[in-house]
Write a structure and sequence with these properties.
Length: 298
C-alpha cells in the first residue's frame, strides 16, 4: 500500500466568494436597525437612503421589506422592559390637537364678526401658524432655512387676503380644523397600509388613492368654509388646498424646496397662479407621500 493510498488528502475547504452581505449592511445601518420598533421602520429608512428592491436583490432578497425583516431579526436587542413613557396617550394627544386646530377659525370669525380692522392680518397669522401646529407627525423637513417656507406662506396668504378681503382669511382659518383631521386620518391609514404591504410598489399603489381621497375631502370642507365666510370658491379652495398640501409635506419630512417654490408661484398676481401652484404641489405630494419613508415614525 502506498503512502498516498494509506492517507488520502482531504480536499481543502472552498473559500466563500464573498462575505455575508447582510452583515455588512447591518453594520452600516446599525443605528437605524437598533432604534427601529419593527421591520417596517427599517424598510422605510432604507428606502430613504436610496435602497430599492433592485438593490435588495443583490443581498439575495426579493424586496426591501424582506431585507428589512432579516436586518430586524439579526439586530441584537436587550431584554429589559422599556421605561414607561411620560407622554400623553394617543387619544388625548389627538383630542388636544383637534381642539387646537379649531382655534384659528374661531379667532378669525370672532375678529371678523366684531368688525376689527385687523381681522385680515389676524386671519393670516393664525392660518400660517396652523401649518405647523398642532398637526404634524413630528418629522422635521430637511433644509437650511426652516422658517423660509412659513415666511413665503405668510406672504402668499397675506397677498391673497389683501386682494380679496378679510372673508378669504376667515375661510382659510376655518379650513384649518378639517385640514388637521384629514391629515391625521391620511397619516393613520397610510401607516396601516404600510403594515400590510410586502413591497415598495405595493405600498405606493395603496397610498396614492388615500392621498387623493384626503385632498378631495379637504377640498369639499374648504368649499364649505368659503361659503360660510362669504368668499368666492374659485379663490379660496385652490389656496386652501395649496396650504393643506404644504402642511402634509412638511409634516412628513419632505424637502422644503418644492414647497417654497409652489408658495412663491402663488404670489404671482394672475388668476391661474394659485391653481397652478396647487397642481404642482399635488404632483410633489403624490411622488413623496407614496414612499414608505415618508410614513416612518419620527
Amino acid at each position: 500500500m502506498t503512502l498516498d493510498e494509506a492517507a488520502p488528502v482531504a480536499p481543502a475547504p472552498r473559500r466563500r466568494a464573498a462575505g455575508d452581505p447582510v452583515k455588512l449592511l447591518l453594520h452600516r445601518h446599525r443605528a437605524l436597525c437598533e432604534r427601529a420598533v419593527d421591520p417596517l421602520e427599517i424598510a422605510a429608512g432604507l428606502e430613504a437612503q436610496g435602497i430599492t428592491d433592485r438593490t435588495a436583490a443583490r443581498f439575495r432578497h426579493r424586496d426591501v421589506f424582506s431585507l428589512a425583516e432579516e436586518l430586524y431579526a439579526r439586530t441584537p436587542r436587550g431584554d429589559e422592559p422599556a421605561a414607561p413613557s411620560a407622554a400623553l396617550p394617543a387619544d388625548a394627544r389627538a383630542l388636544r390637537g383637534f381642539g387646537c386646530a379649531l382655534l384659528p377659525g374661531a379667532l378669525a370669525l370672532g375678529a371678523a364678526a366684531a368688525g376689527m380692522p385687523f381681522a385680515g392680518p389676524a386671519a393670516v397669522l393664525v392660518t400660517v401658524a396652523a401649518l405647523v401646529w398642532p398637526a404634524s407627525p413630528g418629522r422635521a423637513a430637511p433644509g437650511r432655512f426652516p422658517y423660509a417656507v412659513l415666511l413665503i406662506a405668510a406672504a402668499a396668504v397675506g397677498w391673497a387676503v389683501y386682494r380679496h378681503g378679510a372673508p378669504l382669511g376667515a375661510a382659510l382659518a376655518l379650513a384649518a380644523a378639517p385640514g388637521h383631521l384629514a391629515g391625521a386620518v391620511f397619516a393613520a391609514r397610510a401607516r396601516s397600509r404600510l403594515a400590510g404591504s410586502r413591497a415598495l410598489e405595493d405600498f405606493a399603489d395603496r397610498a396614492r388613492p388615500l392621498l387623493a381621497l384626503a385632498v378631495l375631502a379637504f377640498a369639499a370642507a374648504a368649499a364649505g368654509a368659503a361659503a360660510l365666510a362669504g368668499t368666492p370658491l374659485g379663490v379660496a379652495v385652490p389656496l386652501a388646498v395649496l396650504l393643506f398640501l404644504t402642511r402634509l409635506l412638511l409634516g412628513h419630512g419632505a424637502p422644503r424646496g418644492p414647497v417654497a417654490a409652489a408658495l412663491a408661484l402663488a404670489l404671482v398676481p394672475t388668476p391661474l397662479a394659485v391653481p397652478a401652484a396647487a397642481a404642482g404641489l399635488l404632483v410633489q405630494a403624490v411622488l413623496t407621500l407614496s414612499r414608505a419613508s415618508a410614513h416612518a415614525r419620527p
